[in-house]
Fold this sequence. Notes:
α1 (2-26) crosses α8 and α1 (2-26) packs antiparallel against α11 (277-315). A hairpin with a 4-residue loop joins β1 (132-135) and β2. Strands 1-2-4-3-5 form a five-stranded mixed sheet, sandwiched between helices. With 316 residues, the chain is of the alpha+beta class. It has helices at 2-26, 32-58, 70-76, 89-131, 164-169, 172-187, 190-203, 208-233, 235-244, 262-270, 277-315; strands at residues 132-135, 140-143, 150-153, 159-163, 255-256. The protein is elongated.
Amino acid sequence: MILALCLLALSEALLLLGPSLLERWTAGGRAPLASLVAWQFAGWSVVANVALAAALLGSPSLAAVGRLPNRLESCLAAVHHLANPADSLFLQTFAAGALGCLLLRLLGCSIRSTATNRRLRARHRALLNLVGRPDAFLGAHVIFDPTAMAYCLPGRGGRVVITSAAVEKLTAAQRAAVLAHERAHLRGRHHLLVASASLLTRAFPHVRLFRHGLEHTARLVEMHADDLASRSCGRRSVAEALLALGVMDSSAMVLAASAVTTAARIDRLLAQQPTDATSGQVQRARRAAGAVLGASILAASPLLLAAASHAALCLL
């Protein structure tokens, strides 16, 4: 039972402190990929911890999963049987019901969102075939529209879409930067990250951590795509293209080059960057290592917290 309580305590801490801490850490967009990992793990850690805690309380036989090595188990046995599983029928029934509601809510929202996105994307692809044409030279689908914009349509047969006004308005360098940005979205499967954050928000709309996670995920995927496009096209070209494009909203169905806090993205792109390739490689390696370390700590945090709690009780 103590493991379940530790998991619930960790979830409560993430819900209360997570939004402020993560916003402070990810505000500048210095490491968008690591920031995306942190928001995703924070949100889904809460769900996983609550589900596991409910499973442990609802089914005493599962409590063996949370047992520690024999030395700690024998030590804890002297602490008034705090490690015993819940033996209250009411508590077990309540926990099983809560677990069922949690999983059904997530499954229902996931099925509805997936079906809706597939239907809208299929309709969007059909409209694109009517109002536009593929351009082999650009490697994109050009639609005839007086508004300068570009976006990608992810999913099956994902494609990059750019309007005729954007083709005429942008220079060759800016056009290449925009197309590289959209291809980065498709290669990075950024729509899945947005859909993941959106699923938590749809399922539990009143949870501040999930709402802020969706907002920051939409911002960070754009910054990450900016970084990837800048490697081949230059940061100034990407910034100039953002200035020239009209603003669109980013969603799990489409991801737009000019979406989400354009001014902040331009300031970030034009900020001072490492002047040599070696410095850039070192910085990217540090960011990747930080992302892996942070993800590992978050993934192992329930077991670490449970072990610390067991050890503290043994020392009392």
